[in-house]
Write a structure and sequence with these properties.
Layout: H1 22-32, H2 55-69
Length: 77
Amino acid sequence: MPRPGSKVPLRFAPSVRVALDPELLNEFIEKVLGFPPGAPVFISDGSRLSDFGDDEHERQPLRRIQDLYGLDVSAPP
């Protein structure tokens, strides 16, 4: 834990896997997350849907993923 008042550089999680398919990444940002084309959105290999909204807003992307890609990525009950 840094000392109060000290400056710690910001470190981003790696995005190696995400960068493997830029077209899919752009499609996901637009069609699933609902950001406009070219929006400054950072997604890393460790990003979660909850990073982009609260629990209520997380349900919409889950449905979009199911509709677009045929995948159920919701947590098991």
